[in-house]
Specification:
The chain is α+β, with helices and mostly antiparallel strands. Helices cover about 20% and strands about 40% of the residues. The chain contains 4 helices and 10 strands, in the order H-H-E-H-E-E-E-E-H-E-E-E-E-E. Strands 1, 2, 3, 4, 5, 6, 7, 8, 9 and 10 form a 10-stranded antiparallel β-sheet that branches. The longest helix has 15 residues.
């Protein structure tokens, strides 16, 4: 039977102990500085689905996208789901991480499988109304891309999106959102 020898790890543990002590005491200045490098200070939180927004208590309404499918250069892009929710952000305080509801709303949608690849491969992007910027898109390895448009009002009936390949072309504003009727 072979005995494990811990003595060889002792110098490593002795060197790591002060670092762990600094991390453990976040109230210390050095600890806060190091903690800030390791953990993001905060920022927006996006629900990955209408069901998640419902669980968080931020869901305003599920939406239907019209048209439900776009034809782009021989490819088809179908919308999976859409919803409007209250904006959330992470705030760090002395007690730890907290979520805070902010002013405004997020109009969020996802595409059916394959739609993300069409967008990516053809260098396409969504833009809202006549804004000079594209929607925020959050890509994940095994989840559908979230497309997020910050809006000021929960009524999104007047919001129109365009799918563009460049900023110089016309904006058809042919994508709209309609609230689903609750069953």
């Amino acid at each position: 039977m072979t005995r494990l020898r811990y003595a060889s790890h002792r110098p490593l543990l002795l060197l790591a102990a002060p670092l762990l002590a600094v991390l453990a005491t976040r109230e210390a200045k050095a600890g806060d500085a190091l903690w800030g490098l390791l953990v993001p200070k905060g920022g927006p939180i996006y629900s990955s689905s209408a069901a998640e927004a419902r669980r968080r208590g931020t869901l305003i309404a599920e939406l239907k996208v019209e048209p439900g499918e776009l034809k782009v250069a021989g490819s088809s892009i179908k919308f999976r789901d859409a919803w409007i929710e209250k904006r959330l952000e992470v705030v760090w305080d002395n007690d730890g991480r907290r979520k805070r509801i902010m002013d405004g709303y997020n109009l969020t949608f996802r595409l059916q499988k394959g739609g993300d690849e069409v967008i990516s491969n053809k260098d396409l992007f969504f833009t809202a109304n006549d804004e000079g910027k594209g929607l925020e898109s959050l890509w994940g390895p095994k989840v559908p891309t979230l497309f997020v448009a910050p809006v000021d009002k929960e009524d999104v009936s007047k919001v129109r999106l365009s799918l563009l390949s460049n900023w110089k072309g016309p904006r058809p504003k042919n994508i709209k959102f309609v609230r689903k009727v609750a069953p």
